[in-house]
Amino acid sequence: MTQTLPSGVPFMKMHGLGNDFVVIDERGGEGRVTDALVMAMADRHRGVGYDQLAVITQRGDADAHLTFYNADGSTSGACGNATRCIARHLMEETGKTDLTLTTDHGTLLAKDAGGGLTAINMGHPQLDWRNIPLAQDVDINALPIDGAPLATGMGNPHCTFFVDDADAIDLEARGAEIEHHPLYPERTNVQFAHVVADNHLRMRVWERGVGVTLASGSSSCATAVAAHRKGLTGKTVRIDLDGGTIHIDWREDGVWMTGPTAHVFTGVWHP
């Protein structure tokens, strides 16, 4: 006899270069994602664990609308790797190779890049201090912070340091310190990067509301944009993260990010 389990919340566990996500599809209109559920599922010991939780809904004519939560329960306007993972899932579901996705930040285009890779246009970077946002008008190419980092908005705020050796940085200490810097009223993601070769960077990331992560899509975009502004690279950049390699191309229509995705498992959450 087949046992019928009590109703729960179906979810998918995905990752892009080790940057991991719980994805809940609410296109059926269930509306079961609550603050309590977000926090319970985030716990890596008693829940599922994730860097971000993403909710898929349907709004307007887009293929899907995405809403993102950080592991501490706060929301994020953008999450590039989660967007790529969900785009790949929707491509496999629909057979489409081009998608239009909306987020709280704006509209994103997704394409099948071939070879199992997925590309997302993360849009144009925000390079005005008010839109990043920063607390005051300062030089975004050399912030008044030790190390003279660069500020970039990619739907969420970023602070990028270029150093001699990103692997030598105490990321937990420095990341936590800079995330809450008073220059960033909404906190910030923090990156430390160094040049490996022509158009090739090594980067490590601290995500606001999460901590150290193996990868970050929006951080990769922000770092590539910052590296070009600083004259360190061209607009097409390879970035090696702790979780693998991603490719960024800053074009006239926005910042494109291309990389692999993985659907780890599907489950049902029973509170």
Portion of residues within helices = 10-25%
Distance between the termini: 25 Å
The CATH topology of the largest domain is what? Diaminopimelate Epimerase, Chain A, domain 1
Query: What general outline do the C-alpha atoms trace?
Result: globular
Could you name the CATH class of the largest domain?
Alpha Beta
Gyration radius, rounded: 18 Å
What's the overall average pLDDT, rounded?
A: 95
Query: Under the CATH scheme, which architecture of the largest domain would be assigned?
Result: Roll
Main attributes?
alpha+beta, 271 residues, single chain, Diaminopimelate Epimerase, Chain A, domain 1, 2 domains
Describe this structure in words.
Residues 1-5 have low confidence and may be disordered. A hairpin with a 2-residue loop joins strand 15 (244-251) and strand 16 (254-259). The longest helix is centred in the first third of the chain and has 15 residues, at 80-94. The chain contains four helices and 17 strands. Helix content is 17%, strand content 39%. It has two domains: 9-122 and 259-269, Diaminopimelate Epimerase, Chain A, domain 1 (Roll); 150-252, Diaminopimelate Epimerase, Chain A, domain 1 (Roll), CATH 3.10.310. The two termini are 25 Å apart. With 271 residues, the protein is of the alpha+beta class.
